[in-house]
Amino acid sequence: MVKITDEGASSSTHRWDYDVFLSFRGEDTRNNFTSHLYKALCDKGINTFIDDSLQKGEEISKELVKAIESSMISIVIFSKNFASSTWCLNELVKILECRSNGQWVLPIFYKVKASEIRKQEGEDNPFRIALAKHEEKFKDDREKVQRWRKTLTDAADLSGFPYNDGYTESENLWYWGNREIVQQESEEFEQRSRIWRYEDAHKLLTGNMGSKKIRSIMLLSPERIEVSLKANEANFL
């Protein structure tokens, strides 16, 4: 992976195994929104991890921990019963921990409001109800529940995408996908917020040498590559 900015260059030896990790409550969205989103990402050549197994036990598996750590982006699909699953909550804790490694977290609020997750208040708030039940169950480990509460609040504070019940699901996928992940395949390179493929980045770089249009470019390649920018008279690995 190579990261190049107009102020200079920095490099990292970290290599992602996946472009995207999907975190979701299976009973809420596995067979509708999440499956459609997964297909949309895969159709665009975006390497996406999805857990197809039934979640069992309180703690997430070592395989899932590794998948989260090796994913460049985590998309968290918050839904009504998300917080009722300790598996989902522990997964979310790990996802936010990985933000310190430069990973990107995108929340989707599927038929729930960010404020419900952030405030955890209100008699009918499913997140308040779920956390109250966890406090009763884990009365000897209140720190665990407090960690879940804080993690939910922190995640809800991130810039995300609401699912609008006034549209069909396909329309929501089109709107959301084109604003971020799927939009990266646009032929208008200058309109993209992120570049995914080496070939695209090379085209953009060679077309803008010496300009200040390029703020940051991250290149992912199966092999080590060398990029030469004559404008800076330097080589980056």
Record keyword descriptors for this entry.
9 helices; 10 strands; disordered C terminus; NAD; TIR_dom; three-stranded antiparallel beta sheet; 2 domains; Rossmann fold; single chain; elongated; 237 residues; 18% strand; five-stranded parallel beta sheet; alpha/beta; disordered N terminus
Q: Poorly predicted ranges (pLDDT <50, ≥5 residues)?
A: 1-13, 182-187, 231-237
General shape: elongated
- Number of E-state strands: 10
Q: What can be said about the biggest beta sheet?
A: 5 strands, parallel
Number of helices: 9
State the share of residues found in helices, binned by percent. 25-40%
Biggest sheet strand line-up: 4-3-5-6-7
Whole-angstrom Rg:
20 Å
CATH architecture of the largest domain: 3-Layer(aba) Sandwich
- N-to-C CA distance: 8 Å
What is the CATH class name of the largest domain? Alpha Beta
**Would you tell me which CATH topology of the largest domain applies?**
Rossmann fold
Residue-averaged pLDDT? 76
Which class of secondary structure composition applies to the elements?
Answer: alpha/beta
Proportion of β residues?
A: 15-25%
CATH superfamily of the largest domain: Toll/interleukin-1 receptor homology (TIR) domain
H-E order: EEEHHEHEHEHHHEHHEEE
Number of discrete domains? 2
What does this structure look like?
By secondary structure, the protein is of the alpha/beta class. It folds into two domains: 2-11 and 187-236, no CATH class; 18-182, Toll/interleukin-1 receptor homology (TIR) domain (Rossmann fold). The chain is 38% helix and 18% strand. It contains nine helices and ten strands. It has helices at residues 26-29, 33-43, 62-69, 86-97, 114-119, 126-137, 142-156, 169-179, 198-207; strands at 2-5, 8-11, 18-24, 48-49, 71-78, 104-109, 161-162, 216-219, 227-229, 234-236. The strands form three sheets. Strands 4-3-5-6-7 form a five-stranded parallel β-sheet, with helices on both faces. It has a three-stranded antiparallel β-sheet with strand order 2-1-8, with no helix packed on it. Strand 9 (227-229) and strand 10 (234-236) form a beta hairpin. Helix 4 crosses helix 7. The longest helix has 15 residues, at 142-156. The protein is elongated and about 60 Å long. The N and C termini lie close together (8 Å). Residues 16-203 form the TIR domain. It comes from Castanea mollissima (Chinese chestnut). Pfam families: TIR. This is TIR domain-containing protein. Keywords: NAD.
